[in-house]
Queue: 2 jobs
Job 1
Amino acid sequence: MRQILSSILLLALGALPQAVRAAGAGAADPAAKEDTSQDDAANRDSTPRLAVNITTQFPQSEIFGVKLVNGLPTEALISFTNNEPSPITVSVVGGSLWTPASGDKQPQRSIRNLTSSSYNLEVPAGGSESLSYKFTIDLHPADLILKLFSIAANEKRSLQTLKAFEGEVSVVEKPTSFFDPQIIFLYLVLGAVFGGTGYFVYRTWISTLFPQSSKRRGGKGGERAKASSRGNKKVDPSDQVSVVGADGPAVTSGAKAYDESWIPQHHIQRPESKRTRSGTPRIGRTSAKTNNA
């Protein structure tokens, strides 16, 4: 048992120097990393920046600031003034939207990257050129920070990212118009729905509270027939006027339906037929008178 314990102790003592050396190496690594980062920063600082002035304007901006309208393209006019002794080339323009910082607890946070556009615009030495950058967003209305950048290179093909714009903007909704086709279609659909619902409610509940009388509606066929049979009046024979026509006599009741002043008298007064005495014919009477003579 003692031999086993002594062997374990010897192994532990042998591993101790290696652990100490590893710890020393780990302690030395942060210093080496820090030196490397400092060297990189120095190299970046030693790289000469391009002498380029950039100004950005928004033609659609208002007095109260830049407004980004949802669903509508926003145009930014970016002007480059090259102060380098050699021409530069602007290859890409892009941007992003950030939330504004509120103290040290809430720094700026990127919420949306804008679409980058390629231009390959060459700006001569001592000259100025402009380009139009357009982008479209669809966000909730809020106040944000807009950052625009451009990537340019000189004749040595040294690419650098240049800040084109950084400022506060307001995201707003697109103004609605009454003559918008979508709004008109929405009004038609809502009108049809409410109209159909109102008609159904009226026919189901309201019309039953106000029943219409049979006299006003005229009733059904049987009821109208009974009403017509009950309403018939007897015609006085004295009011009947006989009319002789080609198809036989016809009788009309009530007052005369014509003006007699326009009818000639010989049409109104019926001629009386002359009656002849029935008896012997004229030839017989003539012969009798001759015999008597």
Job 2
Amino acid sequence: MEPQYATIFRKSFMGTAILQGLLRRITQSKSPTVEYTAWVRSQTSLQRLHDTLGEDKKHVKCVAGGDITEIIKPANLVILGFPPGELKAVFGVVGLVEKLRGKLIVSLLAGVSYEQIQDAAARNLHLLRVIPSIGAKINDSVTLMAETTFASPEQLRMASWMFEQLGEVQWLPESLMDEATAAGAACNGLIMVAVDAIVDASVAEGIPRSAAMKLAAANLRSSSGLLLGGGMRPESLKESMSVPKGITINSVLALERGHVRSAISDAVRQAIHYTRNM
């Protein structure tokens, strides 16, 4: 089942990435079967959204301000894409919660449980917690979905269809949602720090920055492909490249002297603990 109308409360990078991925799929298929509306608060945000979407903005109705209860009225799926700390303020808008009832509410609010959302709405919402990855923008997301009893099978099919347009969908018990969200976020951050450091070091040794960036990104993609579809594990991948007196093994040993492995593990665990206490 495809949603007929989808409204996105957008005040986040992820909300924009989802919209870009969905519109990219529409452009590729040449068959826009869903009517999308993106709501932002100000004209400044609206202009920024238009600039980001470029030519694709013709496939979405972008709205700044106005009566949000009327804007979401035709939607059968509403995505909440604002900072988690704003939940009570948003649900405090007069008449909004009543207009949300009966629709599938897809929450992108990291660290906010089904119970917390239901409590803020005084219950009776159809809910699905979803956390896409940053690859949503290019239809290469791994989207986490929390198992739920707050949505009908038909609504879950509708949401699955939408997020499958952005990449792979992974269902998890809600009890693991915060941990998986934090692990994914930490992975993105740690990888970007590593790539940035590799590029800077390469430039310092004479490699042009553009070439260093392409080299680092391509090697990251190749390694990911081998881990995901090549039947390899991190240990076997490292061993296969670590020939006697080789470059790879000496690089790894230099990292180990800097306690990088334990620092990465500590950063991931810190991210998980932080998310649990949001």
